[in-house]
Structure to design on (198 residues):
Protein backbone atom coordinates (compact mmCIF):
# COMPACT_ATOMS: atom_id res chain seq x y z
CA UNK A 1 0.00 0.00 0.00
CA UNK A 2 1.00 3.55 -0.62
CA UNK A 3 0.48 6.10 2.14
CA UNK A 4 0.66 9.79 1.32
CA UNK A 5 1.51 12.41 3.93
CA UNK A 6 0.64 16.03 3.17
CA UNK A 7 4.05 17.63 3.24
CA UNK A 8 3.68 21.42 3.28
CA UNK A 9 4.63 21.75 6.92
CA UNK A 10 4.55 19.72 10.10
CA UNK A 11 5.96 16.35 10.91
CA UNK A 12 6.21 14.40 7.65
CA UNK A 13 9.25 12.44 8.84
CA UNK A 14 7.70 11.43 12.15
CA UNK A 15 4.47 10.27 10.52
CA UNK A 16 6.46 8.36 7.88
CA UNK A 17 8.50 6.67 10.61
CA UNK A 18 5.38 5.58 12.51
CA UNK A 19 3.84 4.18 9.31
CA UNK A 20 7.05 2.26 8.57
CA UNK A 21 7.04 0.86 12.13
CA UNK A 22 3.51 -0.42 11.51
CA UNK A 23 4.59 -1.88 8.14
CA UNK A 24 7.20 -3.88 10.06
CA UNK A 25 4.34 -5.45 12.03
CA UNK A 26 1.52 -5.66 9.49
CA UNK A 27 1.75 -5.46 5.73
CA UNK A 28 4.15 -3.71 3.45
CA UNK A 29 4.22 -0.43 1.65
CA UNK A 30 5.74 2.94 1.06
CA UNK A 31 5.22 6.45 2.35
CA UNK A 32 5.28 9.37 -0.07
CA UNK A 33 5.00 13.14 0.35
CA UNK A 34 1.88 14.79 -1.09
CA UNK A 35 2.14 18.36 -2.36
CA UNK A 36 0.44 18.43 -5.73
CA UNK A 37 -2.65 16.89 -7.30
CA UNK A 38 -0.52 14.34 -9.14
CA UNK A 39 0.72 13.05 -5.76
CA UNK A 40 -2.81 11.99 -4.80
CA UNK A 41 -2.41 8.56 -6.36
CA UNK A 42 -2.22 6.89 -2.94
CA UNK A 43 -4.26 4.41 -0.86
CA UNK A 44 -4.54 6.63 2.21
CA UNK A 45 -3.60 10.12 3.29
CA UNK A 46 -2.28 11.62 6.51
CA UNK A 47 -2.70 15.33 7.18
CA UNK A 48 -0.21 16.33 9.87
CA UNK A 49 -0.25 19.16 12.38
CA UNK A 50 1.09 22.63 11.77
CA UNK A 51 -0.97 25.75 11.22
CA UNK A 52 -4.32 24.88 9.68
CA UNK A 53 -4.74 28.33 8.12
CA UNK A 54 -1.39 27.99 6.33
CA UNK A 55 -1.98 24.39 5.30
CA UNK A 56 -5.40 25.32 3.89
CA UNK A 57 -4.12 28.35 2.02
CA UNK A 58 -1.14 26.51 0.52
CA UNK A 59 -3.34 23.54 -0.48
CA UNK A 60 -5.72 25.95 -2.18
CA UNK A 61 -2.91 27.78 -3.98
CA UNK A 62 -1.42 24.47 -5.14
CA UNK A 63 -4.82 23.41 -6.50
CA UNK A 64 -4.84 20.43 -4.14
CA UNK A 65 -7.71 21.33 -1.82
CA UNK A 66 -10.66 20.46 -4.08
CA UNK A 67 -9.20 17.20 -5.53
CA UNK A 68 -8.20 16.14 -2.01
CA UNK A 69 -11.73 16.78 -0.71
CA UNK A 70 -13.10 14.80 -3.63
CA UNK A 71 -10.83 11.84 -2.86
CA UNK A 72 -11.90 11.83 0.78
CA UNK A 73 -15.55 12.00 -0.25
CA UNK A 74 -14.97 9.06 -2.58
CA UNK A 75 -13.88 7.07 0.46
CA UNK A 76 -10.08 7.12 0.68
CA UNK A 77 -8.97 6.65 4.31
CA UNK A 78 -7.65 9.89 5.78
CA UNK A 79 -6.16 10.69 9.17
CA UNK A 80 -5.87 14.29 10.34
CA UNK A 81 -3.80 15.07 13.40
CA UNK A 82 -4.13 18.41 15.21
CA UNK A 83 -4.21 21.00 12.38
CA UNK A 84 -5.16 18.05 10.13
CA UNK A 85 -8.18 17.40 12.35
CA UNK A 86 -9.15 21.05 11.95
CA UNK A 87 -8.86 20.77 8.15
CA UNK A 88 -11.25 17.79 8.11
CA UNK A 89 -13.96 19.22 10.40
CA UNK A 90 -17.10 20.87 9.07
CA UNK A 91 -17.31 23.52 11.79
CA UNK A 92 -14.22 25.40 12.95
CA UNK A 93 -14.09 28.18 15.51
CA UNK A 94 -11.14 29.81 17.18
CA UNK A 95 -10.83 30.17 20.95
CA UNK A 96 -9.52 33.73 20.44
CA UNK A 97 -10.35 35.05 16.97
CA UNK A 98 -14.02 35.35 16.01
CA UNK A 99 -15.46 34.55 12.57
CA UNK A 100 -12.16 33.91 10.85
CA UNK A 101 -12.87 31.91 7.70
CA UNK A 102 -10.19 29.52 6.50
CA UNK A 103 -9.98 27.01 3.63
CA UNK A 104 -11.02 23.56 4.84
CA UNK A 105 -11.58 20.06 3.56
CA UNK A 106 -14.67 20.15 5.80
CA UNK A 107 -16.05 16.62 5.51
CA UNK A 108 -16.41 15.38 9.07
CA UNK A 109 -19.53 15.91 11.15
CA UNK A 110 -17.54 17.59 13.89
CA UNK A 111 -17.18 20.98 15.50
CA UNK A 112 -13.65 21.89 16.53
CA UNK A 113 -12.24 24.81 18.51
CA UNK A 114 -8.77 25.94 17.49
CA UNK A 115 -6.19 26.75 20.18
CA UNK A 116 -8.61 25.52 22.83
CA UNK A 117 -6.04 25.05 25.59
CA UNK A 118 -4.71 28.58 25.28
CA UNK A 119 -1.27 30.12 25.10
CA UNK A 120 0.02 29.49 28.60
CA UNK A 121 -0.38 25.78 28.01
CA UNK A 122 0.50 25.67 24.35
CA UNK A 123 2.03 22.27 24.84
CA UNK A 124 1.36 19.52 27.35
CA UNK A 125 1.43 15.79 27.68
CA UNK A 126 -1.45 13.69 28.88
CA UNK A 127 -2.44 10.09 29.24
CA UNK A 128 -5.24 9.15 26.84
CA UNK A 129 -7.37 6.06 27.25
CA UNK A 130 -7.56 4.24 23.91
CA UNK A 131 -9.85 1.45 25.02
CA UNK A 132 -12.26 2.19 22.14
CA UNK A 133 -9.58 1.15 19.60
CA UNK A 134 -8.40 -1.73 21.74
CA UNK A 135 -5.39 0.13 23.01
CA UNK A 136 -4.28 0.95 26.50
CA UNK A 137 -3.54 4.18 28.30
CA UNK A 138 -0.89 6.01 26.32
CA UNK A 139 0.98 9.28 26.74
CA UNK A 140 0.55 11.82 23.95
CA UNK A 141 1.66 15.37 23.31
CA UNK A 142 -0.81 18.18 22.61
CA UNK A 143 0.72 21.20 20.85
CA UNK A 144 -1.49 24.30 20.66
CA UNK A 145 -4.15 21.69 20.31
CA UNK A 146 -7.75 22.14 19.27
CA UNK A 147 -10.74 20.53 21.00
CA UNK A 148 -13.48 18.59 19.28
CA UNK A 149 -16.49 20.13 21.00
CA UNK A 150 -19.22 18.15 19.24
CA UNK A 151 -19.71 15.28 16.81
CA UNK A 152 -22.96 14.36 15.10
CA UNK A 153 -24.28 12.29 12.22
CA UNK A 154 -21.95 9.44 11.40
CA UNK A 155 -19.03 10.79 13.42
CA UNK A 156 -18.32 9.32 16.82
CA UNK A 157 -15.91 10.04 19.64
CA UNK A 158 -13.18 7.43 20.18
CA UNK A 159 -11.33 9.04 23.08
CA UNK A 160 -11.83 11.95 25.45
CA UNK A 161 -9.71 13.79 27.95
CA UNK A 162 -11.50 15.64 30.77
CA UNK A 163 -14.77 15.45 28.82
CA UNK A 164 -13.20 16.96 25.68
CA UNK A 165 -13.08 14.72 22.59
CA UNK A 166 -9.49 14.15 21.46
CA UNK A 167 -10.05 11.43 18.88
CA UNK A 168 -12.99 10.84 16.55
CA UNK A 169 -13.98 8.79 13.54
CA UNK A 170 -16.50 9.02 10.73
CA UNK A 171 -16.34 6.00 8.44
CA UNK A 172 -12.80 6.05 7.01
CA UNK A 173 -12.00 9.51 8.39
CA UNK A 174 -9.97 9.58 11.61
CA UNK A 175 -8.99 12.66 13.61
CA UNK A 176 -6.87 13.26 16.69
CA UNK A 177 -6.25 16.58 18.44
CA UNK A 178 -2.94 15.21 19.75
CA UNK A 179 0.19 14.13 17.88
CA UNK A 180 0.31 10.32 17.53
CA UNK A 181 3.48 10.69 15.43
CA UNK A 182 5.36 12.12 18.43
CA UNK A 183 4.70 9.14 20.63
CA UNK A 184 6.38 5.90 21.59
CA UNK A 185 3.27 3.94 20.68
CA UNK A 186 2.20 3.22 17.09
CA UNK A 187 -1.34 2.20 18.09
CA UNK A 188 -3.09 5.11 16.35
CA UNK A 189 -1.22 4.61 13.05
CA UNK A 190 -1.85 0.90 13.31
CA UNK A 191 -5.57 1.46 13.81
CA UNK A 192 -5.59 3.80 10.81
CA UNK A 193 -3.62 1.49 8.50
CA UNK A 194 -6.01 -1.36 9.28
CA UNK A 195 -8.68 0.72 7.50
CA UNK A 196 -6.63 0.77 4.32
CA UNK A 197 -7.41 -1.91 1.77
CA UNK A 198 -4.52 -4.00 0.70
N1 LIG B 1 -3.05 25.66 16.56
C1 LIG B 1 -2.90 25.07 15.27
C2 LIG B 1 -4.05 25.47 14.34
O1 LIG B 1 -4.96 26.10 14.78
C3 LIG B 1 -2.82 23.57 15.36
C4 LIG B 1 -1.60 23.17 16.14
C5 LIG B 1 -0.94 21.91 15.69
O2 LIG B 1 -1.25 21.34 14.64
N2 LIG B 1 0.02 21.46 16.44
O3 LIG B 1 -4.04 25.17 13.20
Amino acid sequence: MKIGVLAYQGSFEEHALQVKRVFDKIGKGEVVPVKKTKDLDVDAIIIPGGESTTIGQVAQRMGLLDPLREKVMQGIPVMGTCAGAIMLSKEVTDAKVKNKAQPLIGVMDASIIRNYYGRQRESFEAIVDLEEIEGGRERFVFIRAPAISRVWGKAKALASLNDVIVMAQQDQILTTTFHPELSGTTIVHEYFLKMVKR
In short: The mean pLDDT is 95.
